[in-house]
Specification:
The protein is of the alpha+beta class. Helix content is 64%, strand content 17%. It has a three-stranded antiparallel sheet with strand order 3-2-5. A three-stranded antiparallel sheet has the order 6-7-8. Strands 1-4 form a two-stranded antiparallel sheet. Helix 3 runs antiparallel to helix 5 and helix 6 packs antiparallel against helix 7. The termini are far apart. The C terminus is likely disordered. It comes from Haloterrigena salifodinae. It is found in: Membrane.
Length: 392
């Protein structure tokens, strides 16, 4: 009997150990199923027996074991690639384009309950919207107005995605490529446009160069003509002044010969012993003319002013003395100084004196006038007979 009870006890103990192990395993599995650890960047939707209960927040969450299911939602901004799409523009040009959509889950409950696989839904909606926007624009606009395309796609995506608890943060169209035939035509058009601009610029440059050259030639001819005209005017004025100066010089030399002869006569008269001199009227006129000639001033006679020796305005304008005086004033001064020096040297040679010892003509005339005045004041008054002779 003892031998038969031992196997029965061993079998019972083994069964108990097996049950205990199974219970332990069930408890461990229940604990593991009841604990949900949610990451910081996500939320999870909890269902119990298929019924939505709540959203599990980040951290450790306890849920009913074995009968609960959780669905993960990433709360960060996510990137969706929109596959390349073919579209026909409004001007019947085929184009292909692809884009990138940036989305973010704002309400995980709506994303769980309102849409199945929100990522796929947003991607398909972006594809259709991209084709619609490109089809509503012309080819040039699809190539140039990239920002407008992005804004329109985002606007079209905002309304349906809001119902899903998804916010479209940005849409970026990466490439818009026309067909190869259109690209080839565009390249030819661009090349032709560049050639046209180059030809226009070249023609404008040649035209401007010709205009500048013609203008330069015109200015050169004008300057040359003005120079020749000025040269002719100066030459004519020089000839006129030279002629006038020669005439004045000849007139002066003629008067000087008469005056010199009169002065010699005065010297002979002065050497006499008589203190009373009878002077012919012609000699008195010569003395007045001599003083007027040397001083160059106007002498009053009987209260009336004598005729000036200067040129009148018409003559000065005719020969251009006013203008030429500004241009060759210094030359006139040097010429006048040279003429006076030549006259002094000629007078010295005539009198047999050294030219270096000749006095100034004005000083000589002044001295002669004083001499004559002293003799006239110191002498006797002329008699009536002398006056009659003088009159005769």
């Amino acid at each position: 009997m003892v031998v038969e009870t031992l196997p029965i006890q061993s079998a019972a103990e083994g069964a108990l150990l097996l049950v205990g192990a199974l219970v332990l395993l069930v408890v461990i599995a229940a604990l593991l199923s009841a604990i949900e650890i949610v990451d910081a960047y996500e939320k999870r939707a909890l269902t119990v027996f298929g019924e939505y209960r709540k959203l599990l927040e980040p951290g450790i969450n306890f849920v009913p074991p074995f009968v609960s299911n959780t669905y993960r939602f990433d709360m960060r901004t996510q990137t969706l690639d929109v596959p390349r799409q073919e579209a026909i523009t409004r001007d019947n040009s085929p184009v292909t384009a692809d884009a990138v959509v940036y989305i973010k889950v704002m309400d995980a409950k709506k994303a769980f309950l309102q849409v199945d696989n929100y990522k796929k839904a947003v991607s398909n909606l972006a594809q259709t919207t991209l084709r619609a926007v490109l089809g509503d624009m012309e080819l040039d606009d699809t190539l140039n107005k990239r920002q407008e395309i992005n804004a329109r796609i985002r606007q079209e995506l905002d309304e349906p995605t809001d119902e899903w608890g998804i916010r479209v943060e940005s849409v970026e169209v990466r490439e818009v490529n026309p067909s190869k035939d259109v690209q080839r035509a565009m390249e030819q058009q661009t090349s032709a446009e560049r050639k046209r601009r180059a030809m226009i610029l070249e023609a404008q440059g040649e035209r401007r160069s010709a205009v500048e050259k013609a203008e330069g030639d015109k200015q050169s001819e004008i300057i040359r003509a003005q120079g020749e005209k000025q040269s002719q005017i100066l030459e004519a004025q020089g000839d006129a002044i030279s002629t006038v100066l020669r005439a004045k010089s000849a007139e002066s030399m003629g008067e000087r010969a008469v005056i010199d002869k009169g002065m010699e006569t005065l010297a002979d008269i002065g050497q006499g012993e008589s203190t009373t001199f009878v002077m012919p009227q012609e000699l008195t006129s010569l003395v007045g003319r001599y003083g007027k000639h040397l001083s160059g001033s106007d002498v009053e006679e009987n209260g009336a002013e004598l005729e000036s020796r200067e040129f009148d305005e018409e003559t000065r304008e005719l020969i251009g003395l006013d203008d030429i005086a500004e241009i060759i004033g210094e030359i006139d001064e040097e010429a006048e100084m040279d003429l006076e020096a030549m006259e002094q040297e000629a007078q010295a040679i005539k009198e047999g004196k050294d030219a270096g010892t000749i006095s100034d003509p004005d000083a000589v005339i002044e001295e002669m006038d004083q001499d004559f005045q002293e003799r006239t004041d110191g002498g006797a008054e002329p008699s009536a007979d002398d006056a009659d002779d003088s009159t005769n």
